[in-house]
Amino acid sequence: MSSFVIRHATIADAAALAQLAAHTFAETFAADNKPEDIEAHLRSAYGLAQQTAEIQDPEVTTLLAYREAALVGFAQVRRKPAPGCVNGERPVELHRFYVLRSQHGTGLGARLMQASCTAAQELGGHHIWLGVWERNARALAFYRKAGFVEVGSHVFMVGSDPQTDLVLVSPLPALQRPAE
Questions:
Q1: Beta strands in the chain (DSSP E)
Q2: pTM for this structure?
Q3: Separation of CA 102 from chain center
């Protein structure tokens, strides 16, 4: 079994990240959405300028996952106001979490989740929250297995299509929190 390397993204990674992000989003959602909505979302969320800005943003931590020399997944954790249904102390958002379909079931998701929780703690979080499409059964099962519980929902736009994302939250392990 190959090992994974997870590291923080740098500006030099922006183009590769933009490509992977667009690919994994389309791979995950294209079959269930109109092509024009997928294309609109990809243009607005995963371009080179967007990824460069997110990597440079001190409120965002972008993690890249490699298997051998190939970029196979990424996660982005960010400080931003949580929806009202998130009651946990000092919540940090798991904004994006994607792994190539070919890497599902390899253990990468669990490793990337652990790194994401550490990144959330480094951003000062005591809880981590996310939005996940209500129709993404595989992701919902993964997040629930990782300890997340549903606390509400919000609208997530894919192009012109308003979709329902379930909002899930999990406390971050106290033993791993940096000292204040």
A1: 4-8, 60-67, 70-78, 91-99, 127-133, 149-158, 161-171
A2: 0.91
A3: 18
Strand 127-133 and strand 149-158: the pairing is: unpaired
Going by DSSP bridges, is the β-strand pair 91-99/127-133 parallel, antiparallel, or unpaired? parallel
Amino acid at 48: L
Q: Which of 26, 62, 64 is nearest to 43 (CA)?
A: 26
Mean pLDDT by runs of 10 across the 180 residues of the chain is: 87 98 95 95 94 97 96 97 92 97 94 97 96 96 96 94 96 60
Distance CA(16)–CA(23), nearest Å, equals: 11
**66 an active-site residue?**
no
Task: Pull the structure tokens for residue 122.
Answer: 């480094």
At which residue do the structure tokens 């965002």 appear?
A: 60
DSSP letters along 51-71, please? HHHHHH-TTEEEEEEEETTEE
Give the active site residue among 46, 66, 98, 143.
143
Rounded to 10 deg, the angle between the 35-45 and 14-29 helix axes is 160
Q: Find out whether 65 and 73 touch, Cβ atoms under 8 Å.
A: yes
Top-level class of domain 4-176: alpha beta
Enter the tokens of residue 67.
């298997």
